[in-house]
């Protein structure tokens, strides 16, 4: 039985899809600027500022573990923010997450060091990192839901890709800010220089708030709230009707391990004594790769609107397993040309295929009434594992931290579950927005929930 057409009044007003995509891009860029400057600092600065300098290997391991702490907090944030996002709307969560991220990041820049307050310093660092994780848990899911539900037919992939394109923009901005900071004299860098990028989050929060507070709620959510009312317990409905899709999203979200290994572990490895590449050069690898990703993500997403989500996502997931091996090999040689070329290929081009498509691919698995919860919970559980992939990589690399091939194989293994998830998922790029996540049985037995 076919699913009824979109209810009258549920169409997005002219200009709203573009406005929603722009708000998602800018908000995500500003939000993830905060999130990613922590990754650069965890690899380059925090081992010396917050941990015991007498044991550099352990200090680096502990610092990278604090990077993963935010990912551990994200599933908790997803449960809470997903619940309220499906009850109160996408806009409120988008504004809240941005303000929380700005505050927690600013506080990191104000923290005392280990030399000043001892072990209290890393404890405070972890608490701020937890707040960052809670904020990030609701950011992408709310922005994805906002853009998907505003997008015109046949272009959901393109419009939802702006969220991840914005994320890459934020990472690029964070990297560019850290390049001059990392080039500062050592004493200035470790005393006050590293704090400046974190203090800049105040401007991030203000700009993001001005942009997002003017955005309209999505017509799909507004229509659902008016006709059916919001779901009292989104999590219950989600697990009852979409448990298999939640598992698919969890498995698919492990693809983010490619990003964390590339951004954090590879940076720490390349600048270690084992390889000896310069901080500035390696930061430029990330900057150029993200610059290429800004162009590649919408192109891959547009392709998915034509040929489907699954084939494009599979290119990114399977291809990343291969190109990450090549990239880490290039780093191990100490060759700057090889490292730049393969870094851009791996992260800027190939990984962008999966990264640009998953916002639509995951969001299209769920109905409007539980979409934010489904995407938030599924992605954040998977992202939690991806966050700690950096810590596991540091252990797998051995006492000297130079077994890059073991890390490459570990990363490739983490790309297998996303491939399986994509192969088992439905193709949804041509399914009408109002029919997303609706099974034929439900459309037959409960037609009143999808009709005007």
From TrEMBL:
CDD domains found in the cross-reference section: MFS_ShiA_like (cd17369)
Membrane topology term: Multi-pass membrane protein
Pfam families given in the database record: MFS_1, Sugar_tr
Cited PROSITE patterns: MFS
UniProt-listed InterPro entries: MFS (IPR011701), MFS_dom (IPR020846), MFS_sugar_transport-like (IPR005828), MFS_trans_sf (IPR036259)
Sequence intervals crossing the membrane: 32-51, 57-81, 93-114, 192-211, 249-269, 281-300, 312-330, 336-362, 374-398, 404-423
Cell location: Cell membrane
Protein name: MFS transporter
Chief location category: membrane
Keyword Transmembrane helix: yes
Keywords: Cell membrane, Membrane, Transmembrane, Transmembrane helix, Transport
Presence of keyword Membrane: yes
Residue span(s) of domain Major facilitator superfamily (MFS) profile: 20-430
